Amino acid sequence: MNKEHLVIFDTTLRDGEQSPGASMTREEKVRIALMLEKMRVDVIEAGFAIASEGDFEAVKAVAAAVKDSTVCSLSRAMEADIRRAAEALQPAASGRIHTFIATSPIHMKYKLQMQPDQVVEQAVKAVRLARNLMDDVEFSCEDAGRSEIDFLCRIVEAAIAAGARTINIPDTVGYAIPELYAEQIRQLIERVPNSDQAIFSVHCHNDLGLAVANSLAAVQAGARQVECTINGLGERAGNAALEEIVMAVRTRPDVFSVETRIEPVHIVPTSRLVSTVTGFPVQPNKAIVGKNAFAHESGIHQDGVLKHRETYEIMKAQDVGWHTNAIVLGKHSGRNAFRTRLQELGISFATEQELNNAFILFKQLADKKHEIYDEDLQALVTDTRAAAAAEHVQLVAMEVQSKTGETPLAQVVLNVEGQEQNAQAEGSGPVDAVYKAIESVISSGASLELYSVNAITSGTDSQGEVTVRLARGGRIVNGLGADTDIVIASAKAYINALNALQTSVERTHPQGTGI
Ligand SMILES: CC(=O)SCCNC(=O)CCNC(=O)[C@H](O)C(C)(C)COP(=O)(O)OP(=O)(O)OC[C@H]1O[C@@H](n2cnc3c(N)ncnc32)[C@H](O)[C@@H]1OP(=O)(O)O
Ligand SMILES: CC(C)C(=O)C(=O)O
Fold this sequence. Notes:
The protein is α/β, with parallel strands linked by helices.
């Protein structure tokens, strides 16, 4: 099927900048514009030239920098705005003046305080002036979503006759519903006698979360330009997200008879740039560009993706600029994902039982921690292997009381050579108390040469990894322990070192006297 071209009009630098707190400097706008150009956006709305000296300079700088995309400036239906826009666009290889006036009864009556006839007259004058200054002129009926269809037909016909090449029908306040909005576009195209002389465009706001759905419904009804923003940035709840429009059209060629010229591989880098410049983070579950958009945490999905990616992915992460999709290990993960990740880390187990033991520890850890990182897995494997080695001493249970102004008290239950033993001790800190309690049972006679604790990953739910070095009679051993509770990690590390000390005694003196 021969596809029609869908014009992608990006207004991140104009409507996106209207998000409270998202204002951008001239240099930042140029950086983003160059990324949009690289992505092959057709039209970049760079600002509202009359808004301020800074915005005028920004539009001018973008117009000078961009060569491949059309650069556009917004202007009210007023002579001063239009002339300022034309002046800012002077350096553009291809420039567009975008002029607008509100057409809904509520806007005309209360905001503009004009009669409908006056609005039509002002729109026509504005479009004519803009056409005298520039070939490419777009006219928008602000608040078209709440405008009467007969009035819209009248003003659109007049604007096209005055020279507008693009007619934009914005749902300014995000009031539209897909079927009704599509019907509005369809009727305009059918009823306006000169509609074939213009491209119909849509510009949807997301107040009801319907901006993308409305835009796509309008495309199905004949709109051939979509105005959108990176990350859905924009006034109030934002605009239709460019990445969602582009990828919907691309992913469902069976549904859409249009195509864009966007190179989607630049989507994620551009999204990151916009987020960094504006300081607006992208929510993790945001379609296409959110951190979780191509991440799988649940075992059944991970198993499916590992067997055949398309079982749970309708797009390819790399196509939109991600390095790869992600299998995130957590409490919902299964053995297939666990084993695969360990294999990627170069870790394999001699027996299925060893893998199962590690998987049990993994699930226990995942119950305490949101996400399990590679470093966690490495520590976990060390723990599994330490457990598999001969263990003379095992930690059964422990409890530590640590209160401001009071001496910490530790109670431990150890299994020593198969026999449970209880002990308690005070210490200068909780770890000191635990170590003294352990020593009151074991009496190893070893000296503590090193104690260090590291957070394995970032975040307060990170595991602490403790390293302990013990020395006795010229023998030095290290013990490692990891846990989300660093006092437990410390106990594990100490016991691990005591066991290593005993193992080294056995190696040198097979009839050795024990710990
Ligand atoms: C839906 C949209 O996103 S529209 C774009 C919104 N973006 C912006 O407003 C950002 C840039 N705006 C600005 O910097 C300022 O509002 C300016 C420079 C445009 C105008 O500033 P001011 O002259 O101080 O006017 P102010 O903003 O207070 O009021 C807007 C005036 O424009 C009139 N107006 C609003 N839209 C239009 C229009 N499309 N065409 C003609 N006049 C309009 C209003 O009726 C009001 O007129 P009044 O002062 O005679 O009552
Ligand atoms: C000026 C127009 C295009 C607009 O931003 C809107 O109506 O939301």
